[in-house]
Design a protein that fits this description.
By secondary structure, the protein is α/β, with parallel strands linked by helices. It has 7 helices and 5 strands, in the order βαβαβαβαβααα. The protein has a 5-stranded parallel beta sheet, sandwiched between helices. The longest helix has 41 residues, at 112-152. The chain is elongated and about 60 Å long. The model is unreliable at 217-226 (pLDDT under 50). The modification 4-aspartylphosphate is found at residue 55. InterPro entries: Bact_response_regulator, CheY-like_superfamily, Sig_transdc_resp-reg_receiver. Keywords: Coiled coil, Phosphoprotein.
């Protein structure tokens, strides 16, 4: 069973959080509320999130400051942040949002369909990365088992290699389809994230191919980390 992705919604006004939940409920993911920057940072200490929707105008720690804290933490710095704001102070204000690490900057009132589509892209990329990490973990296990088998003079277990190859092929196919969808219509940040995912998949495939019977016995490729 595939675990649902978590989406962090940060806004000091309950009615805005309720509206975001109504818009994003169709994605069938786990929506987590935070009513302040401090509360958002606390949630990020323990949970992994696919994307963060962050209100700019909040009392105390505003969205810019919250984003700065998020980007300083190694655990959370790669989480996409979409800034939401009810006011527009012009290009300088928008630039400050991107400088703080946002992948997008949306002014209220926003089109619910557009927001849902943007969030869904990052959710899908997050799920593909989770699958890739799972394949990498299994591959590292196989590398360890292969080394032990060679040391004991026993036959290398090829069954798990075949299973890993089949699972990886499914992820590769899904990633290729997603990249085609992103080619002409997605944000630059989403395209860059998809390209990074493809590079990690390529490295994992090379490492897996090195384990196949009859492969070059030279130094195998190192499976991707993270």
């Amino acid at each position: 069973m595939v675990q649902k992705a978590k989406i962090l919604l940060v806004d000091d006004r309950p009615e805005n959080l309720l509206a975001l939940e109504a818009i994003l409920s169709a994605l069938d993911q786990t929506l987590v509320r935070a009513s302040s920057g401090e509360e958002a940072l606390k949630a990020l200490l323990t949970d992994d999130f696919a994307v963060i929707l962050l209100d700019v105008q909040m009392p105390g720690m505003d969205g810019f400051e919250t984003a700065a804290h998020i980007k300083r933490r190694e655990r959370t710095r790669d989480i996409p942040i979409i800034f939401l704001t009810a006011i527009n102070h012009g290009p300088h204000h928008t630039f400050r949002g991107y400088a703080a690490g946002a992948v997008d900057y949306i002014s209220k009132p926003f089109d619910p369909w557009v927001l849902r589509a943007k969030v869904s892209v990052f959710v899908e990329l997050y799920m593909k990365n989770c699958q890739l990490r799972e394949q990498a973990a299994l591959l590292r296990l196989q590398l360890e088992q292969g080394g032990q088998a060679g040391a004991n003079g026993t036959k290398e277990p090829t069954g798990l290699i075949a299973e890993l190859s089949a699972r990886l092929a499914a992820v590769e196919e899904q990633a290729e389809a997603l990249s085609k969808q992103l080619d002409d219509s997605a944000d630059a940040a989403a395209v860059a994230t998809a390209a990074h995912l493809e590079r990690k998949l390529t490295g994992l495939r090379r490492a897996l191919d090195a384990l196949e019977p009859g492969a070059d016995p030279g130094t195998p490729s190192v499976p991707p980390q993270g």
